[in-house]
């Protein structure tokens, strides 16, 4: 079997590569063979063959990040045993940068490169190999020749022991799932590969064939998923008027805790908690993740900020528009579930209130603007520390509430003729389909202005580039709703800390900006021993009988030394909103509500 596949591989390279690269200045051909001799130890062995070379030297690169996850991950740290040979002779290959290997190739037309990759980081954006399966996040597995990002390549997967399946959006060669073809490296790095014995089922939606690869056991109900996932696909496709794929693959990793997702051009990788499908909250959470990552096949992968493609795989790719790319997608993930009737209206309003509560309670929202949050994702969002809540705002959550604001504003001002859907469709067809490029900040603003019918300069100044508080009630009132703060009128005292308990020790994990603890000097990592000389075993009880303005003494161990701090308690400032209907919504409010929540009949609740 291995010999026949290798024969097919090289014959295909001669046929396909010559045709695909005919317009190129050279006839370079590139192929990879991936084996797993020590899968149990988390290794992939890569053999890379390059022929048709006509240059004195070749640099091989490995990306330092993966698109969709805005953090330099230094994938080359996992590479070992790199070697290059030609004609059976080992060449003097030299590493010249953290992710670049330099190979002299004067009078050499064909190279064989071998290297190993250690893969044992469980996430949707990094590779993991063990005896049960291999998940190959391509940007951390495959090197590419400098200057040849547009070259095609072929990948031959030789499975480990009893592995029988490959799941990927890459095209098979001659119907062999273990031989894959990529037209260029942007496609390869955007096409993760799952190899193992995953449970695969299929459905068709919006004229597209979908494959779902369930990796690992889980209490999922395939028949229910086959019913509900196509409904999500159909609702999202309706926004844009087309589904640009012929085939799309969901790779789902079922693990103990699960979580997260990473979008790709024609596939996505999802992390799910294996036992959560059976509860309604767990199942809806999974569908929300499905809706989020699938929505990205338009928003981000095709309709994108101009900085996000073509990619620079050596450096950060900065944009101030992740609040659109991710935040708007976070908004749509739940409104789409509502439109399919998988969320009743009250459930959806609860999810929306949770987003608003996060934004209003995150003190970092008074420090960092949405544009800054987007731009600094590379150094802040993906590298959180104990002070992040005091300095950062999530472009996911705040971007989602900004999408809500735009949606309600457009629906109200146009009397239901337009919505945010029309903006997204217009931008997709104008920039991705017609102009064949990404949009600038100003161009997306112009798209919003086109359908809102108003100039948004001042709005952007206040809410995107500024720190003004959003008047949520103004926009919710368009649909006949308002916010109610469940904690309004409370006079509860607060220290303003979060703690963690380990082996009976209570340690401070966060100190909120402007709180009593912040002002009076309690630090993260302080071990709380006593309050008012009474030993502390339960943080919830230490403020019983206290009120704002009272002074307490907090005894801590800091770096192993005792310290006593006088602290003056302040009023608890946390807000907990829920969304209620106004008592008697007007016909205009009911029409906005109907359009927004896709209600079949006006909701007079």
Describe this structure in words.
This protein is an alpha+beta fold. It has four domains: 2-197, Immunoglobulin-like (Sandwich); 199-297, Neutral Protease Domain 2 (Neutral Protease, domain 2, Orthogonal Bundle); 308-482 and 588-605, Orthogonal Bundle (Neutral Protease, domain 2); 493-571, PDZ domain (Pdz3 Domain). The strands form eight sheets. The protein has an eight-stranded mixed beta sheet. A five-stranded mixed beta sheet has the order 17-18-19-21-20, covered by helices on one side. β6 and β7 (100-104) form a beta hairpin. α9 (395-413) packs across α15 (587-597). It is globular, with a radius of gyration of 27 Å. The relative contact order is 0.07.
Give a quick account of the main beta sheet: strands, pairing sense, barrel closure. Answer: 8 strands, mixed
Distance between the termini: 66 Å
Kindly provide the name of the CATH class of the largest domain: Mainly Beta
Q: Percent range for helical residues?
A: 25-40%
Overall spatial form: globular
Low-confidence stretches: 1-25
* Widest β-sheet, arrangement of strands: 5-4-8-2-1-12-15-14
Spatial extent as radius of gyration: 27 Å
Instruction: Find the structural class using helix and strand composition.
Output: alpha+beta
Mean pLDDT: 94
Tally the helices.
15
Q: What is the CATH topology assignment of the largest domain? A: Immunoglobulin-like
Measured by DSSP, the beta-strand proportion falls in 25-35%
Secondary-structure arrangement, i.e. CATH architecture of the largest domain: Sandwich
Number of strands: 31
Number of domains: 4
């Amino acid at each position: 079997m291995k010999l026949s596949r290798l024969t097919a591989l090289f014959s295909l390279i001669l046929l396909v590569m010559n045709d695909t690269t005919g317009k190129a200045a050279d006839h370079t051909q590139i192929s990879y063979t991936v084996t797993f001799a020590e899968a149990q130890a988390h290794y992939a062995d890569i053999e890379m063959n390059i022929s048709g070379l006509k240059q004195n030297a070749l640099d091989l690169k490995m990306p330092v990040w993966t698109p969709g996850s805005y953090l330099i991950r230094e994938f080359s740290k996992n590479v070992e045993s790199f070697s290059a040979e030609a004609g059976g002779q080992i060449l003097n290959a030299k590493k010249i940068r953290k992710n670049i290997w330099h190979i002299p190739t004067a009078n050499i037309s064909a190279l064989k490169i071998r290297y190993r990759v250690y893969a044992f980081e469980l996430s949707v954006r990094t590779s993991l190999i063990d005896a049960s399966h291999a998940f190959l996040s391509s940007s951390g597995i495959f090197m590419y020749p400098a200057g040849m990002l547009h070259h095609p390549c072929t990948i031959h997967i030789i499975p480990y022991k009893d592995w029988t399946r490959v799941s990927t959006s890459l095209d098979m060669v001659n119907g062999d799932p273990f031989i894959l073809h990529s037209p260029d490296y942007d496609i390869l790095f955007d096409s993760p590969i799952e190899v193992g014995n995953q449970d695969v089922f299929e459905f068709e939606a919006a004229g597209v064939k979908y494959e779902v690869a369930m990796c690992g056991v889980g209490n999922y109900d395939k028949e229910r998923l086959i019913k509900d996932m196509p409904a999500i696909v159909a609702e999202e496709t309706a926004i844009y008027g087309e589904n640009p794929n012929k085939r799309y693959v969901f790779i789902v990793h079922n693990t103990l805790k699960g979580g997260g997702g990473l979008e790709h051009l024609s596939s996505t990788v999802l992390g799910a908690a294996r036992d959560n499908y059976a509860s309604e909250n767990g199942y809806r959470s999974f569908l929300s993740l499905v809706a989020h990552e699938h929505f990205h096949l338009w928003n981000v992968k095709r309709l994108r900020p101009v900085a996000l493609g073509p990619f620079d795989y050596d450096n950060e790719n900065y944009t101030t528009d992740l609040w659109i790319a991710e935040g708007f997608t976070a908004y749509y993930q739940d409104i789409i579930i509502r439109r399919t009737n998988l969320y009743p209206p009250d459930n959806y309003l609860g999810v929306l209130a949770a987003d608003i509560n996060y934004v209003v309670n995150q003190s970092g929202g008074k420090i960092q603007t949405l544009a800054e949050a987007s731009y600094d994702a590379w150094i802040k969002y993906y590298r959180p520390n104990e002070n992040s809540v005091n300095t950062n705002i999530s472009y996911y959550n705040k971007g989602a509430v900004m999408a809500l604001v735009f949606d309600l504003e457009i629906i109200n001002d146009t009397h239901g003729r337009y919505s945010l859907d029309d903006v997204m469709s217009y931008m997709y067809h104008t920039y991705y389909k017609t102009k064949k490029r990404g949009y600038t900040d100003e161009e997306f603003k112009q798209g919003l202005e086109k359908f809102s019918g108003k100039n948004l300069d001042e709005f952007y100044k206040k809410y995107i580039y500024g720190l003004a508080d959003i008047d949520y009630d103004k926009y919710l009132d368009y649909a006949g709703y308002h916010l109610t703060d469940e904690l309004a009128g409370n006079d509860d005292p607060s220290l303003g800390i979060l703690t963690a308990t380990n082996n009976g020790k209570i340690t401070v994990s966060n100190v909120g900006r402007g709180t009593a603890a912040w002002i009076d000097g309690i630090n993260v990592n302080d071990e709380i021993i006593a309050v008012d000389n009474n030993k502390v075993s339960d943080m919830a009880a230490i403020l019983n009988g206290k009120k704002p303005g009272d002074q307490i003494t907090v005894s801590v161990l800091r770096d192993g030394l005792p310290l006593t701090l006088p602290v003056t308690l302040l009023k608890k400032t946390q807000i907990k909103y829920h969304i209620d209907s106004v008592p008697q919504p007007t016909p205009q409010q009911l029409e906005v509500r109907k359009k927004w929540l896709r209600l079949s009949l006006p909701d007079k609740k």
